[in-house]
């Protein structure tokens, strides 16, 4: 059973940082590219960042490039999203996803950027 558990969200002031984690199980993590998505109220889910299976290739959405960093630890079956210089428009529920299991989503983790 594919299971994705996101954590690390919270309330942070503009300019602050958070590190999100996504623990994966039920599939061969090291064989899957992974992505982070986010969905703000009233908006469609958008791709934030992606990383290939080995961790050497990364891509970012234009709104987060230069501020967010995706990484992974295949020994721990975990993908991370380091978020720096957070802005109010980064407020959303953040989800991780595996490229070979697109239909599986975790519960997400809420990130709220507000003063």
Question: Could you explain the architecture of this structure?
Answer:
The structure is a single chain. This protein is an all-beta fold. It is 0% helix and 48% strand. It is built from no helices and ten strands. The radius of gyration is 13 Å and the shape is globular.
Short description, anyone?
The chain has 115 residues and is mainly beta. Helix content is 0%, strand content 48%.
Large-scale geometry = globular
Number of helices: 0
Q: What portion of residues belong to β-strands? A: over 45%
Overall residue-averaged pLDDT value: 97
H/E element string? EEEEEEEEEE
SS content category? mainly beta
Uncertain stretches: none
**Largest sheet composition:** 6 strands, mixed
Distance between the termini: 40 Å
Number of strands: 10
Strand arrangement across the biggest beta sheet:
2-10-9-4-5-6
Task: Kindly provide the radius of gyration, computed on alpha-carbon positions and rounded to a whole number of angstroms.
Answer: 13 Å
Query: Share of helix among residues?
Result: under 10%
């Amino acid at each position: 059973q594919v299971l994705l558990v996101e954590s690390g969200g919270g309330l942070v002031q503009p300019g602050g940082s958070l590190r999100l984690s996504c623990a994966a199980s039920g599939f061969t993590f090291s064989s899957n590219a992974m992505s982070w998505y986010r969905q703000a109220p009233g908006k469609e889910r958008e791709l934030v960042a992606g990383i290939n299976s080995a961790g050497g290739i990364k891509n970012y959405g234009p709104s987060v490039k230069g501020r967010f960093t995706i990484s992974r630890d295949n020994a721990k079956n975990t993908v991370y999203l380091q978020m720096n210089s957070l802005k109010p428009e980064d407020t959303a529920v953040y989800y991780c996803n595996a490229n070979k299991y697109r239909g599986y989503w975790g519960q997400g983790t809420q990130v709220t950027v507000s003063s």
